[in-house]
């Protein structure tokens, strides 16, 4: 004999509400490359900025809106190490005299661009590799490596 459920028993969760995910509506939204501008000018400016930041001629906060939190923290560690090295060697901060090569951009997915810019200085040339992802209708750097 079956008994009717008492009013004290928990009712099953509504399956529509159980499938709701805050990140679907309020988290970062991916944006395709077709909905974003050409990343080459951004990459060239970002490469110049990163070299100037590491040289101490520019503040890291100036590119904070274009990079993810992880990239910001890793650049901050490099900036602090460069500051300590300049202080130990008693080297003054100066704006580096650099020229940029053409940005090479490839799209491994529809949401990402992998780019490299060769930066030519007085005594050496360096590469700046940047991975951009379309996040919230703009390009954001999710990885930056200065080689």
Work out the helix count. 4
**How many β-strand runs?**
5
Helix and strand run: HHHHEEEEE
Measured as a percent range, the helix fraction is 25-40%
- Which fold name corresponds to the CATH topology? Nuclear Transport Factor 2, Chain: A
Structural class: alpha+beta
Task: Give me the oligomer status.
Answer: single chain
CATH architecture: Roll
Reported for the largest beta sheet, the result is:
5 strands, antiparallel
Radius of gyration, in angstroms, nearest whole number: 24 Å
What amount of the residues lies in strands? Answer: 25-35%
Query: What is the CATH class designation?
Result: Alpha Beta
Count of structural domains? 1
Tell me what the structure shows.
The chain is of the alpha+beta class and 147 residues long. It has one domain (29-146): Nuclear Transport Factor 2, Chain: A, CATH 3.10.450. It has helices spanning 15-18, 22-26, 40-55, 69-89, and strands spanning 99-100, 104-109, 112-120, 125-135, 138-146. Strands 1, 2, 3, 4 and 5 form a five-stranded antiparallel sheet that branches. The longest helix has 21 residues, at 69-89. The chain is globular. The mean pLDDT is 89.
